[in-house]
Amino acid sequence: MTTINIFKSRIRSPRDVVIHLALGVSLGYLIGILFIFDGDNDISKHIHLMEHEKSTPKPESFNLRCVIILHKATHKPENIISAITDGYAKLCQETIFFTNNQKLFDKFQKFQNNYTMYHVDSSLNHFYWTYYLYAMEFSSKVPAQWTFLGDDQTYLIVPNLRNTLRNFDSEKPVVLGKVKDTSTLFSWLFPLSSFKKISVRGGVVLSNPAIDKLSACKGFFFSRASDFALYDCSEKYGVQIADPFDEDALRLFNDLPPKQIIAPDSKLFRSSPTKAGKCSDHAISFGQLSEKDMRVLQFGMSLKVFGRGGLDTSSNETTDF
């Protein structure tokens, strides 16, 4: 029997080792460079610059329905509901919760509440278009001027939203939110896929005509992911998409908490560190917040700041975050 030494057969000269190592490092570096250009770019045609210093006509009425979708796996959802109802929900003319957590729904029904909760018998969540569309349609059986659709990690600053909506006609189909293009240099491999989205993590505001049009967006050929389906359907059915920015080119809809925008995560392992950002004084929403984050944000907005006056949520004429 002949014995083959596989280790001996793999021995190479130092020159071969160096060549293979150099090729491996170069290939890895090239792939890394490609992933750095991961898209996530703004889409210029949807950017809507707001002139907050310019006086805008006061709307005759402002009717806002707030729809909040609760994750089934949310830790201590009762605390989240409390933070929302103690905060921005007070400024909504109607607040509706959707959940697929049966225990939470049963517990909620035992108490007298000023808010409505519906149970959705589904294992999906609002990141799936079928669930998201159901919540959108079901909540709008009685039309509202504007509908805010967010989740239990989103916080809405209603006075700032009110001021922004003065620039839009509620009788026309329009959706407002954070719009991004997530295409990469590899996107050409999937020519039939869409890489443009409206981030549902940052909350979305829709006029009633927009909901009517989007209700027709069903079928196999639409994306299953809510972010991408919302963009594709809006484009297909003629719904205006608006991504509002302030005068300083700062976004008003945010899908991250303020602390992560201002102070990004550790830069220790980043080859190109992310610069710290800024939050707009006119910010409308923040996403991915904990219950504690919501409480702190609400407390901060209620403070009176010398020289600025702060935010008085009891008045319909106040502005700024």
TrEMBL record:
InterPro entries: C1GALT1/C1GALT1_chp1, Fringe-like_glycosylTrfase. Signal peptide: none annotated. It is found in: Membrane. Pathway: Protein modification; protein glycosylation. It holds the Pfam family Fringe. One of its GO terms (molecular function) is glycoprotein-N-acetylgalactosamine 3-beta-galactosyltransferase activity. Its EC number is 2.4.1.122. GO terms for cellular component: membrane. Residues 82-226 form the Fringe-like glycosyltransferase domain. The keyword Glycosyltransferase applies. This is N-acetylgalactosaminide beta-1,3-galactosyltransferase. It comes from Caenorhabditis elegans. The lineage of its organism: Eukaryota, Metazoa, Ecdysozoa, Nematoda, Chromadorea.
